[in-house]
Specification:
alpha/beta, Rossmann fold, Dna Ligase, domain 1, 4 domains, seven-stranded mixed sheet, seven-stranded antiparallel sheet, 24 helices, flat
Length: 701
Amino acid sequence: MPLNSAAEIALAQALFRPRAVALIGVSDDAGRTAGRPLHFLRKHGFAGPTYPINPNRDTVQGERAYKSLADVPGPVDHAYILVNTPLVEAAVAACAEGGVRAATILASGFAEAGAEGVALQRRLLEIARGSGLRLVGPNSLGVVDTHTPLALTANAAFAAEKLLKGRIAVLSQSGSQIGTFVSRGFPRGIGFSKLISVGNEADLSVGEIGAALAGDPETDAFLLFLETIREREHFARFGDLAKAAGKPIIAYRLGLSEVGRELAVSHTGAMVGSDAGVDAFLRRHGILRVDHLETLLEAPALVIGRTPPTTARRSVGAITTTGGGAAMVADRLGLRNVEVTPPSAETYARLKAAKAPALPGRMIDMTLAGTRPDIMLAALDILMEAPEFDLVLAVVGSSAQFHGELAVKPIIECARAKKPIAAFLVPHAEASLHALAENGVAGFRTPEACADAIAAYFGWHQAAPAEPLPGATRDRALAALSAASRAVLDERQSLALFDALDIAVAPCAVVDPERLAPLPFAFPVVAKVLSADITHKTDAGGVALGIASGEELAVRSRQMLASVRDKYPSASIAGILVQPMERGIGEALVGYRHDPQVGPVVTVGMGGTLAEVYRDFSVRLAPVSVAEAEEMLAEVRGFATLRGFRGAPAGDLAALASAVARLSELAALPGTPVLEAEINPLIVKAFGAVAVDGVVRLARP
């Protein structure tokens, strides 16, 4: 059974293996942007019919030109529209009428240019959808397939004398970057199967194109140059299909600024309305995230043919011919929570028997012993077999430049082992890097990119499915929400929703300070102003702690009301919410948010504002399983106090993980009625965890 549907296979063929191509508005000057596609098609050997269309010329670049698309003598699968912006709409209409299957649009001035551009882009889409025509762009620098070969691009980098065939596909939201990969990869011997500049993604998105290529027999991995996430359902399918095909996806993303803050009524919104949500999306769908452009080019060989690590351990065995070079990588790895691990006693013994340097330390340093290929190979084989290492790092010094046979060749010879290996070459060593690439070994120019790739490998994730939301829980949650008459729930209503999700909440009572009734729990208590209009009550003077008696409760409640009414005179106040003082080992923030880019996400961090201040939190797509929630807790450094730090009592992390998973189930409610929900704080005790405050915002006015 084919991995892709018939429609996806047909789309991939129209884009990358068209039977015939039309160039609408092609210039006679091969040096101009609109003239390059014809020149590059010929230069790189496209063998199918190519129809230059230019109403003002009989010939273009020495070839017959046609006045219009209707004049060409045969069917066209793919048209590249090269005309200026005002003429694009007519060109798209001509493609739709002529039965063209795919059209790529070079021009800018559409959705990125304001309201008029948005309207024009919408009209293009309406025209195309009425005929079955699929669009790439606008703002696309083209489509390339090195195997067809097809160089349907206006990118100047394709003036290169030769395009290297490879087995890596590049999908870029930045048009010029397809040329960047070609130019940077060529001297390293790194080639590509397909490259596409998706532009504005008015129609075809990275996800839909990637999904159509998941079954491509000429592609083993995908590289993504991203600025945002569009059409997340298609993107998710791309991730799932690539995973099923055993083809890793590696992403580099621009645009790390925060988005969607206008939706935030909590600390969760400030934290997750940012790059963290995109990171969670990529992680959920098995996409590796790298921080350096150089890593994007170099990392594929580290993961092609492999699957995500099956344990949380991040142990690296290091062998080097230059101690300083290896230390540069180890230093960077330490910042990414990846450990260069000393060999075990058994591994030391094997190294000594093989006459390899075996001095105690975190790495096997061959520097003083001299670089001998037989010793290097023997030591590498031992590290590859050592059970304490999950990945082997080989760092080569000066010999890599002119004597690759000494240390680089042994790396190549052992690279077919089950364990991944990364090689950092300290000097400028183009020939050795080329040899590594030819043999499918991940070779790195810089310690930063090497550490980045290794950390990305260990962060490669395959999430366990969340448990289905029980019907009874769903019904209770929907009932709690139905009682709300406003978009933002007050604290009592929010706690009722959390309780419906089987999260333990502190008991509470609403009182009138002028007519106090007996409380259903003992003093001391905490009192808070109850108002859906005031999210952060402490800032408004609306919280009083450690109240020891009814008399004190009455006095401090009146004081709070006066303070709040002075600061928020128009706020609707439903009374004073009273709860018993809850104490525990520590506090956590647990949040849920419907992110505008990636959909529902769940967050956990230190309680109060500390998670936001120190950026110490973990984010996942919602819903999550309890097991995945436990992984999230392990990523929050501040939770060291809950793990029994230096002999202190430990908190109930199982109860905290359960609360994270339960809150994440808001994503499973029909119609996703909740935009945002936050428990802050959740008091983590030695046994159990209890929500004492919260806010919920609904997806309605």
